[in-house]
Write a structure and sequence with these properties.
The chain is of the alpha/beta class and about 240 residues long. Helices cover about 40% and strands about 15% of the residues.
Length: about 240
């Protein structure tokens, strides 16, 4: 697997074509489906008032973003963080519409549709006909929502990263014995100073113990075939 970016946005509404703007963006970097610890998070001044309905969803007020940078001031940092990685979002078309709108306003080249991975579609394929909101998936996978009193871009990106891991195989991936993982494990062991395992292994019993064991076998099996107990004496010489 390659480097991927889990992304979430908060906005003033639902449609940038009607004047809504992005007010928060949060990103989580994952590598081989595991978080690396690197994140990107910015509040953004939307240059317009935030409707009350939107504030009830994410709790971001006009006061919180009044001194925040405008999108044009953070776009280069955001693009640098994303790099050439695919972007993972839940109901990705929503986030993509706002990213595209803001990029156009800054004269930036838009990300290709193929760069986006929609976890909503992944969930609908795995759980057809079921509720597949981020909250519903967190509950299904027993991912704690204790810190999520309101929507937040970075919090939601963290939750989505955990959901995405589960959708891609979850904890079962720890048992992956593919050649690449085995080779990686061998390299790690070698780096820790352990030498190759001898073949065959050196015996751990003493000479006296081996002689005692041999005497026991001779006394127990004298004049008997090992196969007698299984009714297979005709095969003893096979």
């Amino acid at each position: 697997m390659a480097r991927e970016i889990v992304l979430d946005t908060e906005t003033t509404g639902f449609d940038p074509k009607t004047g809504d703007r992005m007010i928060e963006v949060g990103c989580i970097e994952i590598d081989d489906l595991l978080p690396t610890g690197r994140t990107f998070h910015r509040l953004i001044n939307p240059e317009r008032l935030i409707p009350a309905d939107a504030i009830r969803v994410h709790g971001i007020t006009d006061d919180k973003v009044r001194d925040a940078p405008r999108f044009a001031e953070v776009v280069d940092d955001l693009m640098e963080f994303i790099g050439d990685a695919p972007m993972i979002a839940h109901n990705a078309q929503f986030d993509r519409n706002f990213i595209d709108h803001e990029f156009k306003g800054c004269g930036r080249v838009l990300y290709a549709e193929t760069r986006w991975i929609d976890t909503l579609r992944l969930a609908q394929t795995r759980f057809p006909g079921m509720a597949n909101s981020l909250d519903a998936l967190c509950k299904r996978y027993k991912i704690s929502l204790v810190e999520r009193n309101l929507h937040g871009a970075l919090i939601d990106a963290r939750l989505l990263a955990e959901v995405y891991l589960e959708l891609k195989g979850g904890k079962e991936r720890r048992l992956d014995l593919s050649s690449s993982r085995v080779a990686s494990a061998a390299a790690t062991i070698a780096a820790q100073g352990y030498g190759p395992r001898p073949r065959p292994l050196a015996p751990r019993s003493t000479e006296a113990e081996r002689q005692t064991h041999e005497a026991f076998l001779l006394a127990t099996l004298k004049d008997r075939s090992l196969w007698d107990a299984y009714g297979l004496q005709d095969h003893a010489g096979a």
